Input
Amino acid sequence: MNLNIFITKCAVLFGKGVNGFAKQKIQGGKLVYVRIRYDSTIESVEILGDFFMHPEEALLRIENALVGAEVKNRGDMLERVEKVVLSEKIEMIGISPSAIVDTIMIAVAQ
Amino acid sequence: MKWRVIMLEKHSAYENMSIDEAISNRVAEGTSKPTIRFYGWSPSAVSIGCFQSMDEEVNIERCKELGIDYVRRLTGGGAVYHDTEGELTYSIIAPESLFPKGIHESYREICGYVIKGLSGVGINASFAPINDIVVDGKKISGNAQTRRGGVLLQHGTILYKLDVKKMFEVLKVSKEKISDKVIKNVEDRVTCVSNFSDVSMNDLCESMLRGFVDGKDYEFENLNAEELNKVNELGDTYKSTEWNFRR
Output
């Protein structure tokens, strides 16, 4: 899915321990935003928005799979997300693995 | 296959979410019929999608002042203000096997029932993927679906009357944005049944019923004792801070 990065990009420092935040509307899709705590690697990440995902519980496993990924390594993050999506046969509507990773990249680039 | 229909009833947000889940559990066990339910919200409520943050989306303080409930749904999608007088809501809960396998196709099919219902009151609506129904390009219905344990649950709103001001009071939008210009902009993008028809809520519900049951064998029936017990159990979950503020 192509990304439309023009709509919303938000700045840093939200809540306890969170040092990255980004929000964007996916072209032809839904709104996705991430709250991330990271140094050179992801310590925790929360993926939020008005998208759909079946099964819903799988989002937690995607978030967990991203912990430990290097924040500048797009390929590694994408591989981690896609691995969970494939193994759990996750259906995503209005969001995609690349949209999640790109939103994380925006959050850490602030 | 005989369907069960539960006609228009108003419940709290917590009850509405609990009823949908209780029915879904029983349909998964094969002990309840596939169900079509029409309902309203009393008091008015805000529901958020299961992947949203309550704090980011909802003005909790204002909800408390106005006596408006707030709840996280089982389904994805966005935050919705459910006015007690301004909305008809439906749920359809049935084995997945009764619908197209693809999510998009099943949205299209079920939204088709809503479109048929609107047509019955003289409103010419169309499906707007992913999950909306529009009239003249303006949204009149939003829909959200989940699939669990072999059961498809889709619920959706049919806007009857629009109270944009109240909507902005309870959904989180910065004060600067609650200007006449923004409200006008929303009215350009959203519409409601009362803009086209003076049909009563009950007559709208009757028309929706015809749209939903067309070609189906059905009977009117209330929740059974097991479902009611489950609704009572689940009510506390849907009221809980742990559930509603989990993100």
Chain A touches chain B through 18 residues (CB under 8 Å). Helices of chain A lie at 58-66, 74-87, 97-109.
